[in-house]
């Protein structure tokens, strides 16, 4: 049986290649995700090991500031007295305090701030002989207006020793003189693509931390004979619980964990799209094996008549699927290793990073999971056809026979149940409060919903394709193609279902994107009283901003009616982390059209807050209540609720006084909303631009600019998703090709007969093309219906003022046109094969 199975599997190499390609593509994505993530993780591991190779123990203060701001100004600092205390601990040979923080932004020769796609733009305090940096040109900085820059930054900007360079930090833009250029061990211009500016230690404390006399960490060298762990224990005992004390190895591991979140997101995202591709490919494999079983009825019956049991026949078909899945998964794994390495190189290039590890990290779990998932999907998809094969009676070998199609009632009912369960899980996912496994409810619900629709699709495939076929039935090939499409509803539906998945997800994303765009436009035009916004540009550092004192100069511009200058930061309010704004509450009332729910909306004094109605309800607060409030740099104080306002789409955050904002991480403002007289928008915009022209990270935009920027960001995300979903759509097109090729093989005698009675080769090709187009359009219509429903459900469940339910008909028409094109492309190979059949051989074919 095994030898017979192997001969059958290799008998149709094109069929085998197309079926295998679906599995190869899915497993390629999966292995690429694992390899890219693990290779980057290995690179970061070697990077942080190199950074900490000369550190035996590292001391930092525990971060107790509310909220986590990626790349934000450190607030967990070590003072000089603590450094002296550490140096006095027995076993400490050397204690070197240092300053290192993100946020030193260099202005290039073109007047623009050098941007970063990931690596930090760091500022550090120069330390002589730290064992890591190596001065290549010039000398270290010695005065407050001198800096040294790393060789990578010098190469990117063209700056050299003696040049005057503008740098933005927590302080306003300042010009420094480059007195040195440094690199790192191994001849590296940077450690991982970061851009580093070295100041004197005192200057770094002031401009990077806004905390003179304080440090971010203290690196310790152990005395001879003292182990790292012993020194760690001694220092920890001396300092107490307010400090983190780690060995060099532990510090490297902690630093690596800070980038593991990005790697996890990367791997998870690619694996999700790989599973979508495999799930789509399962329909292709199911259809292929179903058709093969039907075509091999006589062969399977002969096996039965020669004594093969049902179990042997079943196992032979499953063995074919195992072999197909395993070989395809191995190919996908091998290709995925190369793709993963290429993806790692692409990400490093995009981020201007250069990790020290240049090899490929292929871990055992990546191999095992790729092979298991790829083979598993193939076997599960072939399970039902295998059961059908085992039911072929021996008598079928004595006559032409085929497995008849069963009535669709049970299948449709089962599909309705499966779809209902999927819809229920999706409803749980969309209304989840955190008590459920989101991956299970969302992923499982979506998969079951698709499966349920695919099971119900045969019921409507014949009437839908018949209606669609009327457009193409003006000729005999069109009429025959339409009838052939409706000949086997299960086959048509299974083929179309593969295309449905990619189209449905793309359409659902399109509905959500359209709703988000409409919501943003409505929020800016109806709920924002300001025509102009002065703010940091997209992609600017979290430390970017402008002096809040500029607000007074903005108000003095002719035509300006109201200005709200906002500063934002995370604080602890009532034991919960909240992102709050500080600014003129009376101006906020005008700018954001705030409605008073209770209390008052007016000038805020120290210790007074205004809260939105949602927060008042969720936190059970009312006017007059007092809650503890703690900022990043300040201590804990009491805050009294003096007013509750109705949240708007533009402002739904708590407002605190400008006096309490003194404890924010940054003293800079991030935004200023400006309301002008209706006829003064253009001149005021020009005046504001002139006011901030010296700050390259701040721009002035009107409402149309803001809407356009937001829409552009949404379009970019949607484009990325659609490109990745292209994998599923590509697999679906392969499914159409495979189904039509097998159909041509199955109908060889029939095609020979129609050729014999006068149909030309071109007419045969047109007939097969009509079948392909109808299947593709049917799948697209199914996907559009499911996708619109999914998108509407998500928008309705999420709600919010930034989502206005909208369906883009232009997007749907585009999808439909692309489906027609996909159908024509998919028909090229099968139509050509059908048209080239030898008439006499086809008529004699059995």
Walkthrough of the structure:
The protein is α+β, with helices and mostly antiparallel strands and 846 residues long. It contains 23 helices and 24 strands. The strands form four sheets. Strands 4, 5, 6, 7, 8, 9, 10 and 11 form an eight-stranded mixed sheet that branches. Strands 16-17-22-19-21-20 form a six-stranded mixed barrel. Strands 3-13-1-14 form a four-stranded antiparallel sheet. Helix 9 (310-350) runs antiparallel to helix 10 and helix 12 packs across helix 14 (489-527). It is globular. The model has no long low-confidence stretch (mean pLDDT 83).
User: What is the overall silhouette?
Assistant: globular
Number of DSSP strands?
24
Helix tally equals: 23
**What profile does the largest beta sheet have?**
8 strands, mixed
Helical/strand content category:
alpha+beta
Computed over alpha carbons, the radius of gyration is 34 Å
Low-confidence stretches: none
**N-to-C CA distance:** 23 Å
Q: Mean pLDDT across all residues, rounded? A: 83
Q: How large is the share of residues in beta strands?
A: 15-25%
Report the oligomer: single chain
Helix content: 55-70%
């Amino acid at each position: 049986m095994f030898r017979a199975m192997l001969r059958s599997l290799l008998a149709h190499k094109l069929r085998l290649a197309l079926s295998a390609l679906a599995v190869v593509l899915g497993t390629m994505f999966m292995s690429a995700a694992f390899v890219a993530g693990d290779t980057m993780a290995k690179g970061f591991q070697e990077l942080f090991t190199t950074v900490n190779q000369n550190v035996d123990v590292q001391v930092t203060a525990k971060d107790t500031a509310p909220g986590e701001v990626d790349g934000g100004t450190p607030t967990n600092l070590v003072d000089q007295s603590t450094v002296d205390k550490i140096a006095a601990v027995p076993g400490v040979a050397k204690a070197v305090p240092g300053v290192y923080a993100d946020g030193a932004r260099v202005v290039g020769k073109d007047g623009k701030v050098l941007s970063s796609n990931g690596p930090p733009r760091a500022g550090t305090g120069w330390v002589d002989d730290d064992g890591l940096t190596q001065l290549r040109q010039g000398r270290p900085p010695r005065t407050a207006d001198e800096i040294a820059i790393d060789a990578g930054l010098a190469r990117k900007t063209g700056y050299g020793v003696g040049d005057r360079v503008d740098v933005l930090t927590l302080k306003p833009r300042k010009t420094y003189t480059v007195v040195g250029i440094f690199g790192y061990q191994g001849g590296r211009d940077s450690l991982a693509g970061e851009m580093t500016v070295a100041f004197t230690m005192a200057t770094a404390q002031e401009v990077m931390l806004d905390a003179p006399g304080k440090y971010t960490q203290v690196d310790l060298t152990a005395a001879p004979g003292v182990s790292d762990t012993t020194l760690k224990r001694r220092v920890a005992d001396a300092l107490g619980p307010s400090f983190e004390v780690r060995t060099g190895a532990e510090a490297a591991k902690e630093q690596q964990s800070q980038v593991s979140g990005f790697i996890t997101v990367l791997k998870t995202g690619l694996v999700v799209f790989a599973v979508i591709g495999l799930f789509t490919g399962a329909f292709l494999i199911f259809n292929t094996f179903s058709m093969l079983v039907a075509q091999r009825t006589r062969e399977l019956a002969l096996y039965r008549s020669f004594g093969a049991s049902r179990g042997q026949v079943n196992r032979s078909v499953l063995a074919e699927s195992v072999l197909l899945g395993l070989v395809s998964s191995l190919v996908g794994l091998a290709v995925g290793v190369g793709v993963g390495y290429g993806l790692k190189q692409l990400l490093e290039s995009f981020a201007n990073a250069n990790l020290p590890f240049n090899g490929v990290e292929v871990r055992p779990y990546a191999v095992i999971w790729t092979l298991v998932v790829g083979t598993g999907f193939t076997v599960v998809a072939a399970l039902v056809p295998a059961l059908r094969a085992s039911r072929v009676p021996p008598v079928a070998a004595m006559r032409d026979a085929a497995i008849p199609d069963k009535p669709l009632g049970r299948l449709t009912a089962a599909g309705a149940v499966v779809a209902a369960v999927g819809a229920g899980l999706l409803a749980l996912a969309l209304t989840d409060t955190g008590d459920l496994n989101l991956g299970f409810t969302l992923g499982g619900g979506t998969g079951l919903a698709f499966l349920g629709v695919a099971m119900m699709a045969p019921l409507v495939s014949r009437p839908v394709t018949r209606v669609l076929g009327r457009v193409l039935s003006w000729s005999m090939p069109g009429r025959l193609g339409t009838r052939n499409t409706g000949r086997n509803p299960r086959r048509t539906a299974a083929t179309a279902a593969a295309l449905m998945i990619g189209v449905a997800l793309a359409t659902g994303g399109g509905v959500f994107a359209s709703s988000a765009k409409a919501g943003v436009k409505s929020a800016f035009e109806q709920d924002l009283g300001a025509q102009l916004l002065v703010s940091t540009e997209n992609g600017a550092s979290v430390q970017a901003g402008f002096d809040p004192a500029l607000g007074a100069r903005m108000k003095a511009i002719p035509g300006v009616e109201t200005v709200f200058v906002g500063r934002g930061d995370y604080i602890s309010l009532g034991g919960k982390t909240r992102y709050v704004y500080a600014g003129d509450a009376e101006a906020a009332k005008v700018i954001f059209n705030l409605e008073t729910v209770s209390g008052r909306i007016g000038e805020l004094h120290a210790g007074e807050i205004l809260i939105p109605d949602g927060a008042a309800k969720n936190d059970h607060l009312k006017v007059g209540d007092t809650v503890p409030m703690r900022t990043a740099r300040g201590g804990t104080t009491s805050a009294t609720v003096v007013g509750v306002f109705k949240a708007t789409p533009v402002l739904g955050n708590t407002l605190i006084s400008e006096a309490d904002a003194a404890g924010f991480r940054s003293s800079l403002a991030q935004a200023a909303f400006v309301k002008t007289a209706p006829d003064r928008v253009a001149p005021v915009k020009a005046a504001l631009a002139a006011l901030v022209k010296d700050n390259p990270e701040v721009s002035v935009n009107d409402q149309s600019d803001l809407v356009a920027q937001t829409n552009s960001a949404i379009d970019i995300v949607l484009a990325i998703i659609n490109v990745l979903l292209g994998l599923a759509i590509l697999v679906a097109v392969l499914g159409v090709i495979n189904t039509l090729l097998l159909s041509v093989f199955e109908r060889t005698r029939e095609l020979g007969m129609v050729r014999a009675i006068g149909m030309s080769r071109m007419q045969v090709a047109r007939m097969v093309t009509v079948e392909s187009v109808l299947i593709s359009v049917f799948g697209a219509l199914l996907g559009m219906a499911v996708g619109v429903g999914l998108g509407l459900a998500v928008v309705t469940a999420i709600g919010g003022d930034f989502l206005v339910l909208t369906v883009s008909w232009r997007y749907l028409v585009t999808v439909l046109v692309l489906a027609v094109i996909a159908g024509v492309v998919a028909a090229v190979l099968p139509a050509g094969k059908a048209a080239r059949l030898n008439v006499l051989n086809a008529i004699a074919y059995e």
